[in-house]
Amino acid sequence: QVQLVESGGGLVQAGGSLRLSCAARDSILSFKSMAWYRQAPGNQRELVAVITSGGAANYADSVRGRFTISRDYAQNTVYLQMNSLKPEDTAVYYCNSERWRTQQYWGQGTQVTVSS
């Protein structure tokens, strides 16, 4: 029962860019918010960006100014544009909604590796 599918990760050098995609089975318009999280080896999962159904966005201090979250209702997809990537951005990135997060559902995530 796949609800969310993340893609777009890869290997990139510091300073490079990637765009992550999160395809949702349900309409993203039906969710209060959609968010991107990341988890690096040995670290806890952290929230990096959130976008509400109304379009308001919020970012973790560590990524503000470098990452941009957006959504495409036609494609039912949420994106995370990642610019000026740093080695500390290396992690598995996950998307989620409040609905699925509270049910403790997580997709497979997509690996982002930033080399120095």
Task: Summarize the structure in words.
By secondary structure, the protein is mainly β. Helix content is 4%, strand content 49%. It has one helix and ten strands, in the order βββββββββαβ. Strand 4 (33-39) and strand 5 form a beta hairpin.
| Major sheet characteristics | 6 strands, mixed
In total, the number of strands is 10
Low-confidence stretches: none
Distance from first to last alpha carbon: 37 Å
Into which percentage range does the β-strand content fall?
over 45%
Topology order in helix (H) and strand (E) letters: EEEEEEEEEHE
Approximate shape: globular
User: Helix proportion of residues, in percent?
Assistant: under 10%
Structural class: mainly beta
Counted by DSSP, the helix tally is 1
Radius of gyration: 13 Å
Strand order of the largest sheet: 2-10-9-4-5-6
